[in-house]
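Q:
My hope is that you can spare some time for a protein that puzzles me. I hope you can help me see how the letters and the tokens relate. Thank you; the sequence and its tokens follow:
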Amino acid sequence: MFLFLFCMSILTPVSTVVVGMVMRKHPARDRNWVTGYRSSRSMKSQEAWDHAQKYCAGIWVKEGVAATVISAAVMLGCYRGDYETVSVGVIAVQLVCLCLSVIPVELELRKRF
């Protein structure tokens, strides 16, 4: 059971790194409501859209790498403890951090455009 929860705890940050790397190499080119970093501020102009894609990708890669290392360390540290509860907490913190990554992107867009 520990191995399953460990893998699930690592899944979100690893996915964040992969999506960030894909966004960095192949950002969404046209403004749309389907792919890429989407907000009303990023969709105001093509220049803002392009900048938001690259900026968000960089944040996601850095955040994902940090979250992967921290999550793995926390999960391995509680191997003999209450790892079920810890894994739920780890995943919850990861998702909150992922949602909070919107803030620096929006601040950058406000400052730049």
Remarks:
- The CA atoms of residues 8 and 70 lie 14 Å apart.
- Residues 46-77 form the longest helix (32 residues).
